[in-house]
């Protein structure tokens, strides 16, 4: 991991398996726990979920660990993963810090894409090193992710000591780690939302426009597929500016205006989306025209 704090030298090497507790062991926690357990990276101790029954289901899914009912039952561990939803991370960290389980040798981390390691400030006040490591992928099917986790990119930020160990732990199971700026982590997450969520909204807008033009919904998706796939492949290969095509790229403002007016008459909200893209795409077209021929 180029440029990562603690990623060079021996500081982050895994000399022997460390103990791991997981607070909020959902799909991400189950996936990572199984990978680490199978690789011998961690010795999984305890799992604390909202209910004991939920924790027991996680233990069964992972094939390792022990479910506990509250913080008092947790055996002290070297590393704590808080795998809850974003809205519960700070509260769970507060409870962990108040339990007296943490010390200056503890590492506490979460896997949120939107929150930075600042959400773990309570643990830091107890002397623990903290970090956030965000695997950039969907965990809808944990068993599928277990089988193909290798080469998954992970955005990493946090304390040097925590990163030195955790990056090594993630790389042991095949992850590819990249540094992100703690203060701008929300922009990092916004980028992922653009790439994975809003592109779906664009596909929906394109499909609805095709349908309004008289094309069946299933055929509309077949029309969109090669356009989207080829455009994405070109952008990944040569960069967005080089890959840009269409009326704005060739300076056909008349067509752009006609399309906008038609969308405005049909569905103003979709027209407003189109208008926003006119400005951004025009900026990209300017970059394209400055590129060497």
How would you characterize the overall build of this protein?
This protein is an alpha/beta fold. It has 2 domains: 18-180, NAD(P)-binding Rossmann-like Domain (Rossmann fold), CATH 3.40.50.720; 188-290, N-(1-d-carboxylethyl)-l-norvaline Dehydrogenase, domain 2, CATH 1.10.1040.20. 52% of the residues lie in helices and 14% in strands. It is built from 11 helices and 8 strands. The chain has helices spanning 27-39, 52-62, 86-98, 121-125, 142-148, 160-172, 185-212, 217-238, 240-243, 253-266, 268-290, and strands at 18-23, 42-48, 66-68, 79-82, 107-110, 129-135, 153-158, 176-179. It has an 8-stranded mixed sheet, with helices on both faces. β7, α6 and β8 form a beta-alpha-beta unit. The longest helix is centred in the last third of the chain and has 28 residues, at 185-212. It is elongated, with a radius of gyration of 23 Å. Mean pLDDT is 94; it is low at 1-12. Residues 19-135 form the Putative oxidoreductase/dehydrogenase Rossmann-like domain. It comes from Glaciimonas soli. This is DUF2520 domain-containing protein.
